[in-house]
């Protein structure tokens, strides 16, 4: 039996935006925060309920593991959701009861590939007690067709596909004007599932024209419980300048767009003044898509005299000079995380990377020498990777160990059917039988899941011997509900 949810109340609103468990509890959900700020500017009253945070903070220690990134190495996605549903049944019933006491008619759930199962069960509970409540699912968990098809029967009325600000506004406007809601780019009615081709929403062209998140609906002091580190998430841009062949993120954000330095600085000033922020995590796919923008915001931070730390993901770009890294350090950059992935030029080319291993080594060296913590990610077992390619990655880490502070991720290659590698299997020498777990693919060299995991283990052993800190090791379990 768990503790009851905290006494935070659900207010009457035009829409309740729910962060569904499991979702990270270190920082507030920036996507939901953007939606709330946008809808409030448009005249709708949006309330926020971080159910993931509530459950995590009120759970026993042994149950907190279901929020951990590495939990997928022990449980399949749906199994994680089933554990949350079983262990927090009372809390979820309590949430539904409290919600139904309000006049809020529209509920929007932000879902990922795990939390979509939890959200669907909550939606079922709501619908059984009040079928008139209108339920919307959005987020990465509904972008692609496959996850939506797994949730049957589904209890959402509509799905928002892609960037949600304008689409959610249009849905609410139609709902409260008693107008007919129809499937359109970015909007998919549940009755049209599997019947029409989904089209994502059109990308917002000018990010300066939408309000930045103020996090007014979040209880900021309750995040990252037990730690003095209370970062706020911040976006400099949306999308990516690279289209790596294994990645699906650039499919969800197909166009790279970035905010002006002045607009970013306005947000930073707000959070420092209003929310007393001392640290930020830039959660862009990459913070250095526009070097002009990155240099510009660094100048503004330095000239402001404000002191705070920030971390971000970045892409290897050989044109980044040592002077820029020194400027980033002066502007508060604490850590940069690079998706280097491989030390083999042949594999880097197959991945769609626009750099060589030597160029990656130069960027890592310059970052470290500027006093910025330098972290990298590694992927082993990309289709076509030979033993020689793998050994080149081992050698890359060995040669550059003095300039690497952390291996943030060590992952066996994951096949996403929607990525270029999954769509064009013949081009990459991938053999995978539809209807089986994508993790079971083999490549033209006969490299299978077991072989990839052995390479992961060898990489982990080598990194450990160097006493390099490693954060996450990814060897996800197979889906027990599909044919092996």
Overview of the structural elements:
With 484 residues, the protein is α/β, with parallel strands linked by helices. It has 2 domains: 15-192, Response regulator (Rossmann fold); 229-474, TIM Barrel. The protein has 17 helices and 15 strands. It has helices at 30-41, 51-57, 77-87, 89-100, 115-129, 145-150, 165-176, 249-252, 261-274, 291-304, 322-330, 345-351, 357-369, 387-400, 420-423, 425-428, 449-465; strands at residues 15-19, 46-50, 106-110, 134-138, 158-160, 187-189, 232-234, 237-238, 257-258, 279-282, 309-314, 333-341, 373-380, 406-412, 469-474. A 7-stranded parallel sheet has the order 7-10-11-12-13-14-15. β1, α1 and β2 (46-50) form a beta-alpha-beta unit. α1 (30-41) crosses α7, α4 crosses α5 (115-129) and α10 (291-304) runs parallel beside α11 (322-330). The longest helix is centred in the last third of the chain and has 17 residues, at 449-465. The model has no long low-confidence stretch (mean pLDDT 95).
Strand order of the largest sheet: 7-10-11-12-13-14-15
Largest sheet: 7 strands, parallel
- Beta-strand content bin: 15-25%
- How far apart the termini lie comes to 36 Å
Count of the separate structural domains: 2
Class by SSE composition: alpha/beta
Instruction: Let me know the CATH homologous superfamily of the largest domain.
Output: Aldolase class I
| Mean of all residue-level pLDDT scores | 95
- CATH fold node name of the largest domain: TIM Barrel
What overall geometry do the principal axes of the alpha carbons give? Answer: globular
- CATH architectural grouping of the largest domain: Alpha-Beta Barrel
Gyration radius, rounded: 23 Å
Number of strands: 15
* Helical content (DSSP H or I, runs of 4+): 25-40%
* Low-pLDDT regions: none
Any idea of the CATH class of the largest domain?
Alpha Beta
How large is the count of helical segments? 17
